Amino acid sequence: MELQKVKCDKCNAEFNISEKSIKSHMLSKEKKIEETYFFCPKCKHKYIITITDEEIRRTIQDCKAIEQQIIGLINIKKKMLGRAKEKSLKLEKEWKQ
Q: Which residues pair with 7 in a beta bridge?
């Protein structure tokens, strides 16, 4: 995860959020409701990022898997187009003479 620069709404402190600064805990173990959040390092104001249940977390994971598949397909497409371009340039040289 990239560092993201934020400004606290309460004290105006500017700081970077990293994966390390993001915390989570279960609001309800029985319903498996999870809260993800971070704190301003200066005034300790809590910022809630998400509140999720199992279904939402599963959907997020499914979306990430689909995104990885799409990235793989884009890479395959780029390779295919690269080979087609090479062949086209080769044919162009052959047939221009």
A: 14
Q: Tens place of pLDDT for every residue, the chain, 97 residues?
A: 567 999 999 999 999 999 999 999 999 999 999 999 999 999 999 999 999 999 999 999 999 999 999 999 999 999 999 999 999 999 999 998 7
4 and 10 in contact (C-beta within 8 Å)?
Answer: no
The single-letter code of the amino acid at 39 is F
- Please state the pTM of the whole predicted model: 0.70
Question: How are strands ordered across the β-sheet holding 23-28?
Answer: 23-28, 33-39, 46-52
Q: Token pair 């890479």 is at which residue?
A: 75
How many beta carbons lie within 10 A of that of residue 21, not counting itself?
15
